[in-house]
Amino acid sequence: MWNPTNKKLDLELVGFALIALLILVVLPLSVDAFRLNLVGKYLTYAFVAVGLVLCWGYTGILSLGQGVFFGLGGYCMAMFLKLEASSVANTKIQSTPGIPDFMDWNQLTELPFFWVPFKSLPFALFAVIAVPAIAAFILSFAMFKRRVGGVYFAIITQAVAAVLTILIIGRQGYTGGINGITDLRTLLGWDIRTDGAKYILYFVCCVLLLGSMFLARFVLSSKLGRLLVAIRDKEDRVRFSGYSVGDFKIFIFCLASAIAAVGGAMFSLQVGFMSPSFVGIVPSIEMVIFCAVGGRHSLVGAVIGTLIVNWAKTSFSETFPELWLFAMGGLFIAVVLAFPRGLAGLFTDQILPLIKRVGMRTGALPKPAPAE
Amino acid sequence: MSNSTDFLLALEGVTVSFDGFKAVNDLNLYIDKGELRVIIGPNGAGKTTVLDLICGRTRVSGGSIKFKDQEITGLKEHEIVRRGIGRKFQTPSIYEDLTVFENLELSIPRGRNVVGALFWQRSEEVVERVHQIAKMIFLFDFLSRSAETLSHGQKQWLEIGMLLIQDPELLMLDEPVAGMSVSERAKTAELLNEIIKHRSVIVIEHDMKFVESIAHRVTVLHQGKILAEGDMDTIQHDPKVKEVYLGH
Amino acid sequence: MSFDQKRPTGPSLSRRQLLAGTAALSAAALVSPHALAQAFPTAKVNTTGLAVTDTEVTVGILHSVTGTMAISETGSVQAEKLAISQINEAGGVLGRKIKFIQEDGGSDWPTFAEKAKKLLVQDKCASVMGCWTSASRKAVLPVFEQYNGMLYYPTFYEGLEQSKNVIYTGQEATQQIIAGLDWVTKEKGAKTFYLLGSDYIWPRTSNKIARKHIENHLKTKVVGEEYFPLGHTQFNSVINKIKLTKPDVIYAIIVGGSNVAFYKQLKAAGIDLSQQTLLTISVTEDEIDGIGGENIAGAFACMKYFQSLKNPNNEKFVAAFHKMWGDKTVIGDVTQAAYLGPWLWKLTVEKAGSFDIDKIAAASPGVEFTGAPEGYVKIHENHHLWSKTRVGRARTDGQYDLIYETANLVEPDPFPKGYQ
Amino acid sequence: MFMGYSLGELGSIFAMQAFAGLILFSVFVLMALGLAIIFGQMGVINMAHGEFMILGAYMTYMTSHIFQTYIPGAYPVYFFVAMAVAFIVSGAAGLATEWLLIRHLYARPLDTLLATWGLSLIMQQAFRSIFGAREVGVELPQWMMGALPVTDVIEVQINGLFVMGLTLIITGAVALLLYRSRWGLQVRAVVANRTMSGAAGIDTRRVDRLTFGLGCGIAGIAGSAFTMIGSTGPTAGQLYIVDTFLVVVFGGAQSLLGTIFSAFTISQSQSTLEFFLTGSMAKVLTLLLVIGLLMLRPQGLFVLKVRR
Fold first, then answer.
1. Which residues numbered 112-141 in D keep a CB inside 8 Å of some CB on C?
2. Residue C285 and residue C382 in one domain
3. Which ipTM did the prediction report?
4. Are residues C74 and C145 located together in one domain of the fold?
5. How far is CA D169 from CA A146, B179, D175, in A?
6. Which residues of chain A have pLDDT under 50?
7. Which of A265, C195, D17, D235 is most deeply buried (CB count within 10 A of its CB)?
8. Mutate which of A44, A45, A94, A169 to disrupt the C interface (most C C-beta within 10 Å)?
């Protein structure tokens, strides 16, 4: 009764249902396989946006390096797929058959040790989550235990993104360098490049995204979710209520990173390659804008925002490539200046009251049930 | 004196300096169980710094702080809180984006780790406890309100309530009536008198009338040192205190 | 190899029709395009549903117009558009005007893949001229192979690749490196080399080939090898190392903005390129525009084309280019290679008598283009071009003086044995 | 790698390497100074800082053209005029940005980060539309190029000396402004306590605007100077930003001295590492080192210890 959070969450559930309807039913029925694959790619960015809602929207931790975790997840998946594509039969012409082509070009004669476990799918799937989560843990543990926050943290995540990009590009014998890991073909013998496979992967991606959203929703609606808001609001007060603030920040940052990593893995599967251009600073900041446009406080908003911005990017850059950067920059500024709560905020602040007024008048809309 | 174990809190030889400036200098302060101590002093006397030192927000440069005869210097803030020390800030520090209920609920000293918070259940007992405190701080009718809509005085009460729900053995209040209306002040004094029945309290306050209405024992700080200590009457007639407050 | 032997025995064209077509072709200047198009009915020349009508054929142009690569790719777009308009003026391809759809890769590799897919799947482009960086080519390659498209790729690159669906109109690494090193050793008596590069696959692979050639064939010495992150702007430390090791030749493969910083700092450090031999394979006339001619004058570049080449083809090409894009635009090696793309495609289509990708792929080897600004080029079995290697010396006005060119066309060898 | 060199040669090499480090140091200070002033004053990182620098570089390019065309006789000194133009134009752009954008966001430093990033995208595209996608070559007066021989081996680069001198002058000027002028007093007052300064009659908004303008103006001068050593293109600003941000953040918000020491630490470690390792690894190690040190000093190198 005195808890408006629950009302909001009910609305959120409606939003979840609408998104599910959109991505599981409407889009597959209305667009062709090519466009649907594009949507699938956008949805992988939505994972990052969902993670950003957790750590930026709710907890106030702005990371300008989420591409790092998206990339790590993507690379873990791509490593497995690449090894499968590099069977001895497929790589007969190489001087060392059975290793990925780029290793052969770089005179590697055997698989580097850290690649070996990626021959196993269970390990690769585990690594998709674990590697980014561990990386996020190390970074956030070091930073949050020392209470590095705000702008400092944002810049450091940027530096981390720069470091990882340089490393991946520079160690090309182990990573595929600037070209990335390309030409991924099959998953346990199943050809992932066919239209049929892309359909299936699209739905897998949707289901995982919805799963991540529900997981995020569960976290946010728990007491921990309210604590995150409290940390964003008055970090010191939380500390003086006996909580170890660092632990919570670390937890949410790792969770956000792990979710981003799932997106990265789905990206590798759907797009068929992974490259350092998703790890760097620019893509990382772009992912923040997806989230900001949709609404940093809203899971539904973040997903919708990602879809809209990417759709706009694709169609805009098809028709007015020169104008795209103006549009993107303007969008950044407009959202930050005028709609800090994004589209979701616009909806709850402007449109919803309107609907309610109309609803009240006609009596069509039942009042939300009391929470307790 | 320092060997005694009767004190709830004992500061001995505590010093802290900021870039050479000694904000607190060789301070000794002892708080008994069940005592209400008021600390007064002119601006810059080091009052808030003393509270910061006790609750771990600022690290001491030298000296020792013992709580229940155990050293607490060097502990993390949340660990000190868990030992039983609560702290209210000068400007009301509450979670403006949450409701009053949620503000209080988050302050309940359970489910304080990540897993505990994730699987926290809002049981009958929790609701009851929140209601009980809310009544005490005059905010029962406001439980579902967002905290940012409260008046300044109500925010101060809410923060006190958030401390009470922790049930600390030592409660430290930094200017609890600042910015309150006269009637709110009276209510706050009433509230404090209720609170101190069960615990020790340190209050920093400027408002002498308010101090008179609650004080048991008063410590006067000046330039990081104790200038005088005693009951209200003695202090008010101490010539050194008069000089510090009125002398210039 | 003979034309007829190579032609697949599909149901498309009878020998008689083909001969008729060839006759028509040679008379293209006399016969109206319409009549030519009738000689090659659409149903016959397009059996796989490409965007070919009786009057038009659609091709794609896929380069970055935005983002960091836009600087480099602009020239290629201009050259491709020029070639297309010239082909159209000359009657088109099999009597059909070329219509192009341009897509922006946005300097972003998945965008390239996405746009490549759009050009092939939605627009049914009969061929695509495009890509610049290796990363973008690697990203689109599976798309071209999966949807059976044809890509004309203009940039000199590291090699180690060969595809039925790509024609590489630039040099692979050995074509650019080996003759240049031979020349500098012979002419300058170079004994020691300092290898520099931006840190990614092309400079690393190229330097590797260079090192093998230097150590194993020339029996001289590499005294240093260094890589810098893309966009690096501080080269004073490495310049000190160069001063320390005093190499006979600085072999530099630095790209992008780093290039500008490197040559400016080299000059500022008092390394005079009229005294110190510097050989680069990454600085075309385009790059000099940004570096400033006075900063790089005296350096040697190993390319297959320079704007200053003196031959009738090139003079016509440069004039046409300047007429279309302004007098100030410079033309670099890659721009010229991009210009070859549409022409080679046209010649191949007319040789195959069909737009079908499989037939083009099969007909490509042996296609000759005598009108190439660089002189004469021919497509090799491995879909790369036979072309000459040339060494030029940078002048202060941003142009190169041709110093040396190989006597014969150099065979492309994307998987060079002994150099990997 | 030191085999076969005499002690004398080694000495010269180290001298030259030290000089290289000093140039890098000057470059970092010049890049970071404008940003540091803004960060210190408002706690805001201006993500478009690199673009303001490039704006200065383009101004230099245009000035050089005007001199070449109209007053070729004065060409050797055009650079000084160019720096003034760069300062004024970038500074004016900074003032406009503050007025249109930044002042609405003072309470939200992280949002300022995003808004200025948006601005940087717009500026990049504007450069591209106006000056073309290709890099432009800025020709320098002849006297600025080349090196002065000190000994047989040691040579001192003239433009390096120029950058060092410029850095010294600008840093000195900023220090004077901050610690000797009325504006500086106001800035320091606002940094120390914004509310109180406002109450004391300081027009904090005006101070903010001037600070932002000044910071951007200095960025313009830096960009102008960088035409000597780096590239001028629409996206060239991006090449500098990570380094610049790290210098500033590592230096801490409060003091100019912090920025200078941080620039010194980063430049020396980078140039030393570059000498012993390859360029890429040196960069990675330097960045990691800075991240590590920031962990030890979360608010930067030089932080005033105050009651929070």
1. 125, 128, 133-139
2. no
3. 0.84
4. yes
5. 37, 50, 10
6. 1-6, 363-372
7. A265
8. A169
The verdict on residue C415 lying in a domain is no
d(C-alpha D257, C-alpha D241), whole Å: 20
Q: In CATH, what class is B7-246?
A: alpha beta
HEC per residue, chain D: CCCCCCHHHHHHHHHHHHHHHHHHHHHHHHHHHHHHHHHHHHCCCCCCHHHHHHHHHHHHHHHHHHHHHHCHHHHHHHHHHHHHHHHHHHHHHHHHHHHHCHHHHCCCHHHHHHHHHHHHHHHHHHHHHHHCCCCECCCCCHHHCCEEECCCCCEEEHHHHHHHHHHHHHHHHHHHHHHHCHHHHHHHHHHHCHHHHHHCCCCHHHHHHHHHHHHHHHHHHHHHHHCCCCCECCCCHHHHHHHHHHHHHHHCCCCHHHHHHHHHHHHHHHHHHHHHCCHHHHHHHHHHHHHHHHHHCCCCCCCCCCCC
C83, two tokens: 């070639």
Whether B107 sits inside 8 A of A241 (CB atoms) is yes
Q: Do B78 and A224 touch (CB under 8 A)?
A: no
| Total domains in the fold of chain C | 2
Q: Which residue in C has a C-alpha nearest to residue D23's C-alpha?
A: C236
Contact indicator for B220, B235 with CB cutoff of 8 Å: yes
Kindly determine whether residue C268 and residue D145, on different chains, have CB atoms separated by under 8 Å: yes
Residue with tokens 């040789």: C351
B abuts C (3+ Cβ pairs < 8 Å): no
Q: How far apart are CA A77 and CA A84, in angstroms?
A: 11
In a domain, C419, yes or no: no
The answer to whether C271 and C241 have CB atoms below 8 angstroms apart is no
CB contact under 8 A, A240 and B77: yes
C192 and C229 fall within a common domain: yes
Report helix angle A245-271 to A195-221, nearest 10. Answer: 170
The CATH number assigned to the domain holding C29 equals 3.40.50.2300
Would strands C300-303 and C368-372 be described as parallel, antiparallel, or unpaired?
A: unpaired
Is C27 touching D (CB cutoff 8 A)?
A: no
Is C260 in CB contact (< 8 Å) with chain D?
A: yes
Q: Is residue C104 part of a domain?
A: yes
- Based on the domain organization, do C165 and C40 belong to the same domain? yes
Tell me whether chains A and C touch (3+ CB pairs under 8 A): yes
Q: How far off is chain B from A4, nearest CA to CA, in Å?
A: 7
CB–CB contact A182 C204 (8 Å): no
Is D137's CB within 8 Å of C290's CB? Answer: yes
Task: State the pLDDT at residue C29.
Answer: 45
Mode of pairing for the β-strands spanning B21-32 and B7-18? antiparallel
Chain A neighbours (≥3 Cβ pairs under 8 A) are: B, C, D
Q: Are residues C250 and C283 in the same domain?
A: yes
- Both C241 and C290 in one domain: the answer is yes
State phi, psi for B32 to the nearest 5 degrees: -85, 165
- Tens of pLDDT, residue by residue over D76-119, are 888 889 999 999 999 999 999 999 988 888 878 888 888 998 99
Cβ pair A321:C108 closer than 8 A? no
Between helices C236-245 and D7-42, what is the axis angle to 10°? Answer: 180
**Full domain range(s) for residue C9:** 3-170+310-386
Q: Distance between the two ends of chain C, CA-based, in angstroms? A: 30
Residues C299 and C360 in one domain: no
Give me the residue spans of the domains in chain D.
Answer: 32-240
pLDDT, tens only, B61-110: 888 999 988 899 888 889 999 999 998 888 888 999 899 999 999 998 88
**Domain assignment of residue C414, yes or no:** no
Say if residue C96 is in the same domain as residue C242: no
Strands C56-63 and B217-222: unpaired
